[in-house]
Amino acid sequence: MDKWESNRAWFLILPVFVIVAFSAIIPLMTVVNYSVQDIFGPGQRFFVGMEWFREVIHDERLHNALVRQLAFSCMVLLLEIPLGVLIALAMPKKGWGVAACLVLLALPLLIPWNVIGTIWITFTRPDIGLLGKTINDMGIAFDHTARPLDAWITVMAMEVWHWTPLVALLAYAGLRAIPDAYYQAAKIDGASSWAVFRHIQLPKMRGVLTIAVLLRFMDSFLIYAEPFVLTGGGPGDTTTFLSIYLVKIAVGQFDLGPAAAFSLIYFLIVLLFCWLFYQALQNVGTGESK
Amino acid sequence: MGLTLEHVDRIVDGETHLSDINLEFPSGSRNILLGRTLAGKTTLLRIMAGLDRPTRGRVLVDGKDVTGVSVRKRNVAMVYQQFINYPSFTVYDNIASPLRLQGVPRREIDRRVRDVAEMLRLTPFLDRLPSQLSGGQQQRTAIARALVKEADLLLLDEPLVNLDYKLREELREELTAIFERGRSIVVYTTTEPTEALMLGGNVVILDEGRVLQSGPTDRVYHRPESMRAAEVYSDPPINYLDAVVEGGQARIGERITFPLVAHLEGLAPGRYHLGLRANRFFLKKRTDRDVALESVVELSEINGSETFVHVSHQGFSLVVHETGIRSHKMGAAVTVYADPAQFFVFDQEGTLVAAPDPHPAGPSARG
């Protein structure tokens, strides 16, 4: 009797299985399937085993893209997290200014990503762009289509402009959640504002900052639309990040097998880094939050 | 050090939070600010600490005006309702933090931290972080941080309100002993009359930003000068009955009359409000002079090992405090007994006219 009832319970989670199968498992297994076959056309495919993985792992252009990607994501974190916290600290705590700041901050987050790329193209063009022309008129040669460093600076600036508000909003929410009594207690103790930041605000923000770091790392590691529109991965391949390179292989060259193998490796790298970050942030000052 | 408040007002956005507060806290005194929520207790503490400036009036320390002096330059310690500790410091570092900021030598810090930790039974937890402690231990840490400063002024803003019943009782007893030992002015806010009575010292009854009455805790309890003060200083709130005095006797409603005994003797004829705390009502006749009030049970609630019976008598809602757990059916008829010698008598304006003798049997009875 008991046995029968508990067996029947499996039917109740069947819908979830179906949804997860269609949304995640089947697409992922298709990619796994592609990654071990050589595909010439419909019906013309051959099993090649680990061949594509071997090829992709030894692809020097992929190594370069990975290094570039890591450098990019690390710089994103180094710039956006401190900047976001600074903005959150500087924001007003009450009054009409709060709403104004929140709206201003949210604006870049609401713009479609490829539009962001377009905005920044026109903004930084050396001939007609407001920023590009100004810099060139000041006597500094600046052209993100020709000079790798300029291209990097432009992509970084765009990324920081686009996503720092998210970090600031998260940090602001964390700050607002600190009861006023903490600040009073620190004031009565005679603690400096640095001490208040270091020993009250920062530990209390640890939870939201963990989320901010994870989100920003993952997102920047997967970045595609904005640099693709802005630089197309150039000049040369100096701003070709992992996903841009992946699309070049899959769509540009129609090498579905290597692209699938690449996707799986890409996926594992993202998972690995997220896990590493999560572990690291959990261990930094255990129990500091709450 | 003595602290004096002179004509202190606090008005925020046109709303009066405190109005004309005049209080004096002598050196080493223990003071309870008793009042309901929003009575202005926290506002007053903040002004005493120097966190806020009074809108009008002066704050004096030993006769010297410190009204505008920043909190950093005053020797103040404060404990809050919430458990406020530095989240990334261990208990030891938390307790030591105010001393480190004062630049006290390392060896003395160690001695003082360990003394206070011992007093508040925190010694086994000195290496833990606040988030690894129970609520009671977190508040003990916060209290230790306040005590270790040996500040001139120790302010506690309903420190036990977020703790469970058992911990509250326990910590309250310990605090009473700790306050006795220290030499700072202690100001402790609470909404609970029992807490005020247990902690002793002086009590200040605050209501809607005004001081209703102040004085030694038990004196105020036995002689609330107004109906409002008696309400704030009774839990459950004091019961009121209307009575008329004429022809040498008093009458409640139409039929219940009783002679003017004890402190009621000599009451001028007129209308009065009679006040009686819930624990002075009984469901059994105890003396011959007891007044019997035929009532109907409206609600009976059990709280710990006590029972509160809410009854209605001729339109008056009364609460009877019975010790022990009893059950009463809703709607049942009960007779409530009260000894007229226990009535507080207030005139029509709500001012105390006569109060019962708190020590009727004792040889050195006080008014």
TrEMBL record, chain A:
<feature type="transmembrane region" description="Helical">
    <location>
        <begin position="98"/>
        <end position="123"/>
    </location>
</feature>
<dbReference type="InterPro" id="IPR052730">
    <property type="entry name" value="Sugar_ABC_transporter"/>
</dbReference>
<keyword id="KW-1133">Transmembrane helix</keyword>
<dbReference type="InterPro" id="IPR000515">
    <property type="entry name" value="MetI-like"/>
</dbReference>
<feature type="transmembrane region" description="Helical">
    <location>
        <begin position="260"/>
        <end position="281"/>
    </location>
</feature>
<feature type="transmembrane region" description="Helical">
    <location>
        <begin position="160"/>
        <end position="178"/>
    </location>
</feature>
<dbReference type="GO" id="GO:0055085">
    <property type="term" value="P:transmembrane transport"/>
</dbReference>
<keyword id="KW-0812">Transmembrane</keyword>
<keyword id="KW-0472">Membrane</keyword>
<feature type="transmembrane region" description="Helical">
    <location>
        <begin position="12"/>
        <end position="36"/>
    </location>
</feature>
<dbReference type="InterPro" id="IPR035906">
    <property type="entry name" value="MetI-like_sf"/>
</dbReference>
<dbReference type="GO" id="GO:0005886">
    <property type="term" value="C:plasma membrane"/>
</dbReference>
<feature type="transmembrane region" description="Helical">
    <location>
        <begin position="207"/>
        <end position="225"/>
    </location>
</feature>
<keyword id="KW-0813">Transport</keyword>
<feature type="domain" description="ABC transmembrane type-1">
    <location>
        <begin position="66"/>
        <end position="277"/>
    </location>
</feature>
<comment type="similarity">
    <text>Belongs to the binding-protein-dependent transport system permease family.</text>
</comment>
<dbReference type="Pfam" id="PF00528">
    <property type="entry name" value="BPD_transp_1"/>
</dbReference>
<protein>
    <submittedName>
        <fullName>Carbohydrate ABC transporter membrane protein 1, CUT1 family (TC 3.A.1.1.-)</fullName>
    </submittedName>
</protein>
<feature type="transmembrane region" description="Helical">
    <location>
        <begin position="70"/>
        <end position="91"/>
    </location>
</feature>
Automatic annotation (TrEMBL), chain B:
<dbReference type="InterPro" id="IPR008995">
    <property type="entry name" value="Mo/tungstate-bd_C_term_dom"/>
</dbReference>
<dbReference type="InterPro" id="IPR012340">
    <property type="entry name" value="NA-bd_OB-fold"/>
</dbReference>
<dbReference type="GO" id="GO:0016887">
    <property type="term" value="F:ATP hydrolysis activity"/>
</dbReference>
<feature type="domain" description="ABC transporter">
    <location>
        <begin position="3"/>
        <end position="233"/>
    </location>
</feature>
<keyword id="KW-1003">Cell membrane</keyword>
<keyword id="KW-0813">Transport</keyword>
<dbReference type="GO" id="GO:0055052">
    <property type="term" value="C:ATP-binding cassette (ABC) transporter complex, substrate-binding subunit-containing"/>
</dbReference>
<dbReference type="InterPro" id="IPR015853">
    <property type="entry name" value="ABC_transpr_FbpC"/>
</dbReference>
<dbReference type="GO" id="GO:0005524">
    <property type="term" value="F:ATP binding"/>
</dbReference>
<dbReference type="InterPro" id="IPR003593">
    <property type="entry name" value="AAA+_ATPase"/>
</dbReference>
<dbReference type="GO" id="GO:0015408">
    <property type="term" value="F:ABC-type ferric iron transporter activity"/>
</dbReference>
<keyword id="KW-0547">Nucleotide-binding</keyword>
<dbReference type="InterPro" id="IPR003439">
    <property type="entry name" value="ABC_transporter-like_ATP-bd"/>
</dbReference>
<protein>
    <submittedName>
        <fullName>Carbohydrate ABC transporter ATP-binding protein, CUT1 family (TC 3.A.1.1.-)</fullName>
    </submittedName>
</protein>
<keyword id="KW-0067">ATP-binding</keyword>
<dbReference type="InterPro" id="IPR047641">
    <property type="entry name" value="ABC_transpr_MalK/UgpC-like"/>
</dbReference>
<dbReference type="Pfam" id="PF00005">
    <property type="entry name" value="ABC_tran"/>
</dbReference>
<keyword id="KW-0472">Membrane</keyword>
<dbReference type="InterPro" id="IPR027417">
    <property type="entry name" value="P-loop_NTPase"/>
</dbReference>
